[in-house]
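Slide 14.
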Amino acid sequence: MEWLLTKCETQVMFGLKRLKLSTFFLYGGIALLGPYLPLFYKALHFSSTQIGLLMSIGPMVSLAANPWWGYWGDRWQNLKKLMLVLLLGNLLISQIFFQMESYAFVLIALIFFYLFQTALNPMNTSLILQTIEDQGGQFGSFRLWGSLGFAVVAAAAGPVVESIGIKNIGYIYGSFIIVTIVLILILPKPNAEKAQRKGTVHYKDAAAVFADPRFIGFLFCCFLISVPNQINNMFISLYISDLGGSESAVGWSWFFAAILEVPIFILLDRYMRKRSEMIIALLMLSSLVYAVRWFVMSVIDAPYAIVVLQLVHAFSFGIFMYTGTLMCDMLVKSAYRSSAQAIYAVVWMGVSGILAGTVGGWMYDMVGPRTLFFIGGLMSLLALGGFAVMRKKTAAETNRQHLQA
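Slide 15: predicted structure.
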């Protein structure tokens, strides 16, 4: 009996390591998209407005793709199976997409590419949350491997891209997706007993859950934070390049943006108390850091100063992503976790990404990046006010519950 328990513990340990490694390679592949896709489009001689439209395709597709895949994640209760479907589809289409050069063909291929790509992040997050529920662990200890993968690849890819040429980036991306597929394949099977205990998914009940004013208010504040964040993600590579920075400078900017997320996640795992008031307070702190970051971005114009400023990303996006994911998970029932994370992703990457890519791309050409980032700072301050109201109402509700008890 003791031998059997030891064997089960060993299998769990190796399963957790495989999930961490698969997260590393998944985000390593993502690191080749955000920083280098704008440069790939620039090499094809597309304008800033055209690039902005292309960068908004993913968010547009995610409006339908994320809820669709979230539905199947909740229905199957088998996120490993869903991840494999997404990864295989993404791998196949990516190798077609990166061979295109005509603007029209790039746009069409990109639609199908993002059909399988945009849901990878929220479904991987759901897989991590499911694993924590089944086998224990802290969210940050898994997600930090994604930040490590993103940081390492973003920095290392710069010299490689300069050497082989930006147009060959698709082969590197494909190799990361292949490794991720292999690691997902050898993950342990999901806990069928726990999945069964969650019960049948009823989408009439889900509609009531997602219509909760707290959930809607949370999503609106996330939208205000995400728009300038998406503008930064979409155009910082062009901004650095326009100011005279190289591909390596672009890579290092994303490295600095991601690497400090690792200690942030470790500290949050260790010291953060998973109470709604504490989480909202951290969301407020993150919103304030975002506002300061965008205001500073609006007054500097040296490429390497922008690279160094990316260090602040860990304290803005890192804290927000960690606490936002937990807040989203707390506001809905576990049976609807995949759908909740998908809706959160629709707001974070979809609706806000469309606005950032279309209006943001136009404003980048018309008024310049400085004005664009200043507006982003104002939006972040508005989100800070929204979270402050949410925290006040949460505290009042908690006090009422204590009095009734």
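Speaker note: The chain has a mean pLDDT of 81.
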